[in-house]
Amino acid sequence: MVQTGSAAAGGLATPVLEVEDLAVTFARRGEQPTRAVDGVSFSVAPGETIGLVGESGCGKSVTSLAVMGLLPRRGVQVTGSVRLDGQELIGAPDRVLRSLRGADMGMVFQDPLSSLNPTVPIGTQVAEVLLEHREMTKAEARDEATRLLDRVGIPDPARRLKEYPHQLSGGMRQRALIAMSLACSPRLLIADEPTTALDVTIQAQILELLRELVVDSGTALVMITHDLGVVAGLCDRVHVMYAGKVIETADRHDLFARPRQPYTGGLLASVPRLDSGRGTPLTPIRGSAADAIPWAEGCAFAPRCDNAQDDCLTEVSGSTVPLEPDGPGRELRCRHPLEHPSAPAGASAFGTDAPGAAR
Amino acid sequence: MTAAPTSPGKDELLRVEGLKVHFPIKRGIFFDHTVGHVQAVDGVDLVVSRGATYGLVGESGCGKSTLGRAILRLVEPTAGRVLFDGTDVAALKGEPLRHMRQRMQMVFQDPLGSLDPRQNVESLLSEPLHAHGLGGGKAGIAEKIRTLLDAVGLPSAALRRYPHEFSGGQRQRIGIARAVALEPDLLIADEPVSALDVSVQAQVLNLLEELQERLGMTYLVIAHDLAVVRHISDVVGVMYLGSLVEQAPADDLYEQPLHPYTRSLMSAVPVPDPGVEERRERILLAGDLPSPADPPSGCRFHTRCPWRQKTRCDDEVPVLRELGPGRLVSCHWAEEIRDGVLHPRSPEEALHAGAAARPAPETQPGDDDPSPFLGRDQPLPRAEQG
Q1: CA distance B380 to chain A (A)
Q2: Which of B267, B174, B192 has the alpha carbon at shortest distance from B231?
Q3: Chain B contact set for A201 (CB, 8 A)
């Protein structure tokens, strides 16, 4: 396990990526607009890995697409600020974004098969990035592609260059995708659930690869995942998202030892762990993510929260729940956080009330 | 509740003997001929005690789902016997088989795909009761369905609604209610929670445990998530390329995995605790699962095994043998590995050893991949510890 420098983690180094108050609204005619991402701010320094964690529908993937400028124009409204090395990306012309994507920022998607073109050999797809962004001849690009495939651990790269995506295994496809995103040594890499589709032994290989890349090249890595285990092993800082907002931010050690948001605590208490025996009770969170209420009405997690009280609702308290500093390096959006040090996370009297909670 | 899986006796509900499922690989358009077989399940023996939970783990493609389906005769076994409460299910036909199915039910992975989108919940849940002539008329069935909904934690208003109107967790509850409607003795759950969000997974796991306690069902839980299997199982079987490589009482297996594959698998699972993550021993496996159409000779795991030895591993098929009470392992060197006599090699060493042992045609200078298999990755250097 390699720790990045404290300077990077402490935010002293100039951040590669700064996201400020990012909001994404999807609007369809005749329907209520949906606010998928609602005022998200974070920054990543070189060599730092941050995690965006949350369940499906919490807006973590939309955040990454908004950063990369990959959301469609039609019916989508993106506001706020995304700066890559100080350069504003929101509202930047397509030409500029195109020159940045692949060169300065790369992305690895969840499903490697559908992110690769099935009709084009792997080598051509890797070389395409090089031809586009680095002034190389075809022969040079080919050699470089071989070197890249070798670097991400694909055996016999010269032969693999001529193969099509369907001829590779899932793990190798994901490696090829990582090779493509690394082709121009980007300053920023966004990995959206890069291991969710893979088996655990392959997942371990891919995570090891990402970990090495961050250390070797000082790439800033944004890791988007729902797997708290992956976060615990890889990320320096963790942002927990719920219903489009960041609800808790902390250093990974702090977060896992002392989760403050009841949602974070609930997530940790509801995941079966390999190192706890049979009969260790799981305390699920009541209901499902669909039970969230709009943030304007109160804390979106309140309907599922065991700590919820009347003033979690905007009606009672008069203001929406703010994201406030909560001790060194931590931020929290909660009026009734979990208290430590004694009780274990999420151990609440109502925890096992699961069946009655499904509405 | 935990019974030694090998002790035969009255309290065993399911016994699988030498079960094989081979799928033919066909070529040709008009006159297709079989060019080979995918050996999805290749000689599995297992015993599940009444009232216990047997967890089956393995990576995708190891044959665990096919095994589950073959037990229910949803796919035809190629060879072997499935004794359910003393009756050979594999030999049953027609009406007796249909009656037998009343006692063994299945919960599927994809809750939406396994529910008919055009049937409402009432119709979905009453269908098995009608099919088996149970429930005692209209009033009886209606009463029964209400009890079922209550048991799985759905409101009675759900009766008139259709599958698409529910969330993933609720759909899985409907699937479970349908399987439980006939009060089966055996419930086979194939990846019951893998399609669900983490916070909802725990609800469904708790529901399964609660129902087992209330109805005294026996479970065969198939999953790729080792933590889920550990949480729910009494006995765990680990599959690799169509056969069981290790079987043990759950806590023993996780305390001290004996087979090299189990050890690597356990070491690859991330734990949501940074402290544990930093201390965790990581055994990175080289490469991917070999093709089950052309499994390696000898021990099937030898191509990726960090403990592979020069003798026996490549050419001698290990049998599942008993190393302790209820602990079955199929590895020639299990004792030596347990006692720390043999040490694992890093994946590069393992590959170099492999390259020395095999002729490696068509490889370029400096390329040390000896693998003839499609889909074999080169390993990464071992993680720095600590």
Answers
A1: 7
A2: B192
A3: 59, 264-265, 268, 284-285
State the count of interchain CB pairs (< 8 A) between A and B: 213
* Beta-sheet pairing, A34-44 with A17-26: antiparallel
B250 to A153: CB separation less than 8 angstroms, yes or no = no
Whether the pLDDT of residue A166 is over 50: the answer is: yes
Q: Decide if pLDDT at B155 tops 90.
A: no
Report the gap between the CA of A66 and the closest CA in chain B (Å): 23
Judged against a pLDDT cut of 90, whether residue A359 lies above it is answered with no
| A204-261 pLDDT tens trace | 888 988 898 888 888 999 999 988 989 998 999 999 999 999 999 999 999 999 999 9
B103 in a structural domain: no
Least CA distance to B224: which residue of chain A? A199
Examine residue B316 and state whether it is found in any structural domain, yes or no: yes
B363 at A interface, C-beta within 8 A: yes
Q: Which of these three, B181, B211, B233, is where a domain ends?
A: B181
Four-point Cα dihedral A112, A123, A209, A219, nearest 10: -100
B317-329 average pLDDT score: 90
Domain end call among B133, B151, B181: B181
Distance from C-alpha of B149 to C-alpha of B91, rounded to nearest angstrom: 35
Superfamily of domain A1-104+184-257: P-loop containing nucleotide triphosphate hydrolases (3.40.50.300)
- Answer yes or no: do B377 and A158 touch at CB < 8 A: no
Mean pLDDT, all residues of chain A = 85
Is the CB of B272 less than 8 angstroms away from the CB of A208?
A: no
pLDDT tens figures, A335-345? 999 987 644 44
Helix runs in chain B, H state only: 64-71, 94-101, 121-131, 137-152, 168-180, 198-215, 226-232, 250-255, 260-268, 274-279, 334-338, 347-357
When pLDDT is averaged across residues B56-61 and rounded to a whole number, the result is 88
Q: Is the ipTM of this complex over 0.85?
A: no
Say if B385 is an interface residue toward chain A (CB within 8 Å).
Answer: yes
Quickly state the pLDDT bin for B348 (edges 50, 70, 90).
low
Distance CA A105, CA A331 (A): 27
In a domain, B119, yes or no: yes
Are A158 and B224 inside 8 Å of each other by CB?
no
Q: pLDDT tens-digit profile of A308-322?
A: 988 888 888 888 888
Domain count along chain B: 2
Helices (H) and strands (E) in chain B, counts: 12, 12
